[in-house]
Amino acid sequence: MAKEAINEALIQSLEPIQDPQALIGELFRRFGDRAAIGTSGQLTGVVMVDLAVKAGLKPRVFTIDTLRLFPETYQLFDALEKKYSLKIEKIQPDPEKLKAMLREHGEFLFFDSKEKQEFCCHLRKVEPNERVLGTLDVWLTGLRADQSKARAATGRFEIIPHGPERRPILKVAPLVDWTEERLRRYCEDNGVPVHKLLFWEQDGWRYESLGCVICTTPIGPFEPRRAGRWRWFNGLDDDKECGLHVVKKDEV
Ligand code: SF4
Known about the structure:
By secondary structure, the chain is of the alpha/beta class. The chain has one domain (20-199): Rossmann fold (3-Layer(aba) Sandwich), CATH 3.40.50.620. It has seven helices and eight strands. It has helices spanning 8-14, 20-31, 43-54, 71-84, 95-105, 114-133, 180-190; strands spanning 35-38, 61-64, 88-91, 138-140, 157-162, 167-172, 201-202, 205-206. It has a six-stranded mixed β-sheet with strand order 3-2-1-4-6-5. Strand 7 (201-202) and strand 8 (205-206) form a beta hairpin. Helix 2 crosses helix 3 and helix 3 (43-54) packs across helix 7. The longest helix has 20 residues, at 114-133. Mean pLDDT is 90; it is low at 247-252. The structure holds iron/sulfur cluster (SF4). Iron/sulfur cluster (SF4) binds next to helix 6.
């Protein structure tokens, strides 16, 4: 497969493809294993996998396995692998760096300070993500514009620089304008395996965003979507990000 340039001309050639399934199909056909769906088990991720398989593809799928995910997240990955006959790449933190972090700061360093939480997120999420991006030209993400204030400016296409040489990667959010309701309906109508915690609710409390155990808690009826993340650092700030999808401030 000849290597395609990642540039504005590529985006212009993809812009007319409005249908997410057609777009996902086009990207995998053009980029093969240099394209991959990254998912943490949210609804957009499982819908993208379903759309890709229904388009006749065997998509490359990866997740960042922080080794601190909910048991229900691992169960979902097992269910997806079984239903779609694929292997989800679980990209984990560097074992030596992880050991050193735990030795120096302890298991629960994220409670100590914002800096230590970001250090933990960097080691368990951002570094492994950088590693897998090193193998990609196209990163399909499940970002949605309605997920938080910080994500409201998300478009379908963005060229991001990777590594010290700033190699361009096309980041694509095919379902950027889908609502929660539309995603839920799609999963129900198509028998798509879903994360059990996203369908859990008690007295109006529910999960809208899933990450690591302890750092992710349910949100109450009037809280913003990402309030459940790192709740001990200002639960009402809905701009909290772990570093995987950093949005430039002037774009917010
Ligand atoms: S969410 Fe919590 S446990 Fe997971 S990487 Fe970030 S700080 Fe560490």
